[in-house]
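DEPOSITED CHAIN:
***
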Amino acid sequence: MMNKKLQNFIKITFNYKTIFGIVMSIAGIYWAFRDFSFDKFISMVRESEYIYIIIAGMAVIFSIWIRAIRWEYFFRQKKRIPVYNLFKAELIGYFGNSVLPLRLGELLRVYIIRKEQNLSGSFVIGTVVLERLLDTVGLLLFSILLIFIIPLPEDIKASIYWSILILGIIGLITLLIVLKVKNLKNSHWIVDKIKLFFSAFHVLGGRLSGYTILITVILWATYWFDVYLVQKSLNMNLGMAGSLVVLIISSLAYAIPSAPGTIGTFHAAVKYSLVTLIGGYPPEIAVTFAIILHAYTYILFTITGGYYFMKSQFHTDAISKIINKGNK
């Protein structure tokens, strides 16, 4: 009889969404790495200024910490959770996204926080959804900034404008839902679940809303600075404007289904940014930059997030339970 955990792993591994994501990653890897030059890669690594990579790594850890601060605001209506606990959970989530398909790291951190803090799963999932909505707002704000900094193809501009419109509509609908849910009197269990899910959204209309938006802007500014530091380490002279192009396009790649860690799709997006949008960069240099930009965060998240995951008292059954949920 096949072990149940192995059965669950096989189910999610051969899930059609996982397979589609892997196919997209393979396509991205082929397009990005067909111009790869190992000699050029070794040469650029040897000549790089590692101090900038170290500072970039510190900036990444800082970004996780301020993400944890913002996340803590969402819980205040229910419970005050130490920021350090949420910082660890954020890293566990990134670790999960690096090693599990379907970005199950989000469910992994939900599971850990729900168990550690004895909170409703519906409520914790609501905080994660709100976090991702705010990340999308930050991405669009910096996309608007990009339009004014550097000339973009009309199709890219049109995509940004449509995204702004769609986000505005989603925001308005979300606001109406939150207001409607808040006034619901029915005590049915489904209504209670919906209320719990949206209760984290209280932060948008309260005194913490300004801090929430400010932290979101600081987050994206940190990501921007991070890309700038990595290109600086490779002496690419990309500048702040070029770094913003890479940030926006590579961030959009996260929306494309892919293998764990956005391998392939991320590299293809960075190469497209440097070779097609900005221009002037040979494909082999663009691919090397993509590898280093991806690798140092991937390694950092896998090591630190994996460490905190193994230190968690609930890590033993977490993966199997998350995979079970992923199959439903």
